[in-house]
Design a protein that fits this description.
2 copies of one chain form a homodimer.
Chain A lengths: L2 H22 L35 E3 L8 H14 L10 E3 L3 E6 L4 E9 L31 H4 L4 E5 L10 H6 L6 E5 H22 L2 E9 L2 E3 L5 E8 L4 E2 L3 E9 L5 E9 L16 H8 L14 E2 L2 E2 L1
Parallel strand pairs in A: 1-2, 12-13
Antiparallel strand pairs in A: 2-3, 3-4, 4-7, 5-6, 7-11, 8-9, 9-10, 11-12, 13-14
Chain lengths: 318, 318
Amino acid sequence: MSSKNVMSRLLVLSSVGFGGYLTGTYLERKKVTIAGDYVNSARSHESFCSKPGLPIFGTVSAATPIPADSPSSAVVNVSRVGQIMKYGFPGLDNVRSFDDYVLSYDRRTRVAHWVFEHLTPQTIKHNDAVDRAKCDFKPDESIHPFFRSLNSDYKGSGFDRGHLAAAGNHRQEQKHCDQTFFLTNMAPQVGVGFNRDKWNDLERYVRKLTKQYPNVYCCTGPLYLPRREDDGKLYVKYQVIGSNNVAVPTHFYKIIVMETSDGKLEMESFVLPNQKIDNETPLTMFQVPPETVERAAGLLFFDKLARNKLAKINGKKV
Amino acid sequence: MSSKNVMSRLLVLSSVGFGGYLTGTYLERKKVTIAGDYVNSARSHESFCSKPGLPIFGTVSAATPIPADSPSSAVVNVSRVGQIMKYGFPGLDNVRSFDDYVLSYDRRTRVAHWVFEHLTPQTIKHNDAVDRAKCDFKPDESIHPFFRSLNSDYKGSGFDRGHLAAAGNHRQEQKHCDQTFFLTNMAPQVGVGFNRDKWNDLERYVRKLTKQYPNVYCCTGPLYLPRREDDGKLYVKYQVIGSNNVAVPTHFYKIIVMETSDGKLEMESFVLPNQKIDNETPLTMFQVPPETVERAAGLLFFDKLARNKLAKINGKKV
């Protein structure tokens, strides 16, 4: 795929993505009436619970305070974070580590910069004791209330609370599944035709990779891509929803690294517009060079890996 | 000023700000022709100079590597950063410390999140040996090339390279003045009527505060404010310029804390739309509650100060 083709494809994705706002709104049954009010909510430091063990430098936190009576859990948790983040952090803004995934939160958009997962045949194995229906979407109280998204922000917006770390990737323990329901792990996604369809296909595709590869590393996040308007200039434009002005990303990315059983590494990189996508469109249509995503997201993915040492990128030999 | 009034004022600022894009373009003599090309620039790690002493955790850096032959400069520099940042860091993403100001860089927009300065009657005193004309706008090579803004991004865009830390605040040494010309300290600003006029008035106002207050702390940065469109929904929309897609902020803020000689603290907080502003409009028209800026920017300003312990906010007793 030449650079020019890639560029054209991205511009097409970008343009179509904005049409997506229109197609997405047919889902909207109720107008957002509370919006844009930065002012009326008081500076309620009282409701911000700065949990012990949470802030490191104010921006790096652990999801769960380590209980004093279980010293071993610290070791377990740290080593799991080390496994998940084996190939580097894409960025270090407001990092939050959960038991089975790691997240970086963007306080301006109220949507994560990135969410990092490590999948193996074991971690995605179905466990009958884990019930997704028991999980509730819940605000993340480790985030200052000024920057915290709430269920009320999504209500009536027409957008789904779309998982970045998929619930289906974390079913070894109920706690792991529960933790994917923090609103820090959600982004406003078009429901029918995207979150419930093509995006879900991509999530299932990533899980299926564990049949072939013993280790799969997956980084997921939002993009806010520019689009050329009639005046010939490029603009970034995205909707914000709810009283906390949660950003509706124009696109979402997934960058995946697969380890083969003989230690080779392959990478795949996808960008999907946040809109209804035809079911017939193959996922490979959404493959883009990882550099494209890095430039747009302001992040460096898998930076501990020299890209020219990878065996394959997007199915092609490097 | 009631919350409602503040809100109305902010919405007005926001609306007007978008008109500003139109009024701003009369300055534009040449269309931006290179744009949106995330792809064609190669992943040129070679041109990224990771200087010794620069990255701490990959995102916190010192502007100048400390020369081995001057061990005292480390002490001086660290203590100056401590002075400047006395009342807390607004955020910790990609922090970069220069000799006389501190900056946090947003790799996605290619514009700083915030720039922090400490002004005293001494630091702003005119020094005949310091010549602004000797300073050149220069790319900041401590930033990875994927996220670095260049002079070519601004060329022909119709926007000024607007200083966030004002050059006029740093004239004790030529080096201090020089360092304000790194492009990490620049944002695309409307020239006539804004950067060269009302924004400049605000900068001069901040300097003048040192006549009354022995210590003045000033935090400056961009905002990307949402605006309600005809469909009743709120959208964030901003132009991006050049091949690196440098964001054109819709607004800029300044949050200032002044120490009185008897140790009292006062705060002022301004938001100006990035557009031509009538010369007659008094600066006080642009005062907003600091919380408003915090929510919009995703930052907490002067968080070591309890806001209810301040003597005054925006000229009014707290």
